Amino acid sequence: MKAGIYYNKNNLNNNGVYPETLRRMLAARAVDCAFVNEPSDLDGVEVLFVLGGDGTILNVAAECAKREIKIIGINYGHLGFLTQFEPDKMQSAVELVCGNKYAVEKRTMLEVECDGNTYLALNDAVIQRSTSGHDFSNTVQLRAVIDGSTVDNYLSDGIIISTPTGSTAYSLSAGGSVLTPDINAFIMTPICAHSLHSRPVVFNDNSVLEIIPSVGRIPINIVIDGKIVGVIGNSVIKVKKSEHCVSFISRSDKDFFKKLLIKLNIWSK
Q: Considering the chain, what percentage of its residues have pLDDT values greater than 70?
């Protein structure tokens, strides 16, 4: 087995003891291991140990999905919804992987197409108003169409399209429902809509969603898993289920609702 180690350079760069400790643990079990700094370092990797929080995992999720690399997360961030182990359980994480007795949980991804570009998102895609400089806009007007049928016209700060994995992130903060990871659905959540009837919509993940801006060229940001990837005018954004999915190594004793309660209580403190 070839393993990779990817870690949050901002949090752990001044304390390299954690990545190096993990490398030594794997080497002691004769596991070929290398640090990952760029996408090409993932070639040939079968299991990627990620040291950080959810954002660190999101940084590499798409590249891992394309290569069918399994991810195991050790939480050195704040929330850690996507991680399986806390820092003091690093040894347990290594033993789980090396013992080859783990379960693999596959998570659906979004595929977002716009202006000839394609993006993959594990958590969410956000279509939102611009808040910078001369591109600033108070609201955006977006029409949502699912499988050819108009759902609604939204005058709002934007729209969040979320996977079940991302339903506990930005969408939840904006009033969206929590979706369990095994549900074959996505959720579309308006952001601060200027209408009392505008509510989150859960729809089948085999459907195709189109977000159509109103006529005009008000700058609109496309944000994929928390990063702005483009600014458009009146281009149509198409969102559907990706053929790729993210594989997470998980323990057999996982309990989604227990983890949800624990993490949300941490979040509220």
A: 95
Sheet holding 124-129, edge to edge: 201-204, 185-191, 158-162, 124-129, 220-224, 227-232
In the annotation, is 54 catalytic?
yes
Residue with tokens 């990817």: 6
Q: How many CB atoms lie within 10 A of CB 44?
A: 11
Note whether 33 and 7 are within 8 A (CB). no
Tell me the two tokens of residue 13. Answer: 């760069």
Pick the catalytic residue: 32, 41, 43, 54? Answer: 54
Cite the DSSP H helix spans in the chain: 9-12, 17-27, 54-67, 90-99, 170-173, 256-267
- Tens of pLDDT along 138-181? 899 999 999 999 999 999 999 999 999 999 999 999 999 999 99
CA 122 to chain centre: 3
Give me the domains of the chain, ranges plus CATH numbers. Answer: 2-102+251-267 (3.40.50.10330), 109-242 (2.60.200.30)
Q: What angle do CA 55, 58, 61 make, to 5 degrees?
A: 155
Closest to 226 in 3D by CA, of 171, 144, 156:
171
Q: Kindly state the tokens that stand for 26.
A: 């794997």
- Of 202, 7, 10, 208, nearest to 90 by C-alpha is 7
